[in-house]
Amino acid sequence: MIMQILNIDNSCRRCKGLILTDESTGERYCQSCGNVIVERIEDSRSEHRSFADNPAGSRTGSPTSLAIHDRGLATIIGNVNKDAAGKSLSTSMKYDIKRLRVWDGRSQAHEQVDKNLRQAFSELSKLKDKLALSDTVIEKTAYIYRKAIGKGLVRGRSIQGVLGAATYAACRDAGTPRTLNDVSDAINVQRKDISKNYRMLVNKLDLKMPVVDSINCVSKIASKIGLDEKTKRHALEILRDAKNMEITAGKDPMGIAAAALYISCLKYNVDVTQRAISIASGVTEVTIRNRYKGLRDKLDLNY
DNA sequence: TAAGATAAGAGGGACAT
DNA sequence: ATGTCAGTCTTATCTTA
Q1: Measured in angstroms, what separates residue A136's CA from nucleotide C3's C1'?
Q2: Nucleotide nearest to A278 (CA to C1')
């Protein structure tokens, strides 16, 4: 329902408004009505294929990325004992090159580390699709994962567990609203493991994580259910008041956002059930009710 | 069928031992 | 390091309108 096929002319089906892309969240949304079209961002980097008028083909080589095990910069020392001019090498030179070759091989393989990265980044590209993550988040995830490997934090833990944690951390850092449950479902690792690894990463790598803002959560939920702009705005007002009264601390931001939206729906007589909001937000109905009660009592709302 | 109530259980932070 | 405690959230079940 909320997902629509993207029009060829890049305009919103509902109101013909211009479609914009939010680089940080990877969401494509309508400029005028806020309707989220599809939560996926295509890789907009240059393509690497040869053209008829450029038979040599590669202009720049493959793009370098942290999310490739060797960053796309692999270099191998060949196995032929010839120099650049094709002449055979001297005996002493052959020896030196042999030594080089050994070390080159070792650095290529990086023993376990390189294997680990290969596997991790293959998982990461699957995650990118499942969670509709932007390139920014992917690079950030790869960066965090590399740091974790470098500190030997992956040893004794599952690759997927740590990668999931790195992904979650990258999302938090980029302000892309993905919950532990989102990541957990996508990578098929128990939520508690991701969360445990996430805290470990934050600790050991001294990551500075911004607190999840319930305001970001509102638009995520609202677009999933397809609520209009007016309802959304009122929910944001409720959130602002709630924050001023300091009744949001220690609560799940997603839960607060869900409750604020629910209240907003009641006010404008929008026919949305707690269940619908619960599914869209990933928090249970009970939690929504609790937050709803809390907000209603503290803010003197009479509906 | 949606909303409200209640209880049991899990996980994590704060704090003391 | 380990244990306890208060507070939060989830799951499950029952009642109410």
Answers
A1: 43
A2: C10
Instruction: Report all structural domains of chain A as residue ranges with CATH numbers, in order of start.
Output: 1-43 (2.20.25), 112-204 (1.10.472.10), 215-298 (1.10.472.10)
Separation of A44 CA and C6 C1' (Å): 50
User: For residues A303 and A188, which has the higher predicted lDDT (pLDDT)?
Assistant: A188
**Which positions on chain C have an atom < 7 Å from some protein CB?**
7-12
Q: Whole-model pTM above 0.85?
A: no
Q: Give the 3-state secondary structure of chain A.
A: CCCCCCCCCCECCCCCCEEEEECCCCEEEECCCCCEEECCCCCCCCCCCCECCECCCCCCCCCCCCCCCCCCCCCCCCCCCECCCCCECCHHHHHHHHHHHHHHHHHHHCHHHHHHHHHHHHHHHHHHHHHCCCHHHHHHHHHHHHHHHHCCCCCCCCHHHHHHHHHHHHHHHHCCCCCHHHHHHHHCCCHHHHHHHHHHHHHHCCCCCCCCCHHHHHHHHHHHHCCCHHHHHHHHHHHHHHHHCCCCCCCCHHHHHHHHHHHHHHHCCCCCCHHHHHHHHCCCHHHHHHHHHHHHHHCCCCC
- What spatial distance separates the first Cα and last Cα of chain A, rounded to whole Å? 28
**Distance B15 C1' – A196 CA (angstroms):** 21
The per-residue pLDDT for A213 is: 84
Residue A101: pLDDT above 80?
A: no
A196-219 confidence digits (pLDDT tens): 999 999 989 988 888 888 888 999
Distance CA A117, CA A124 (A): 10
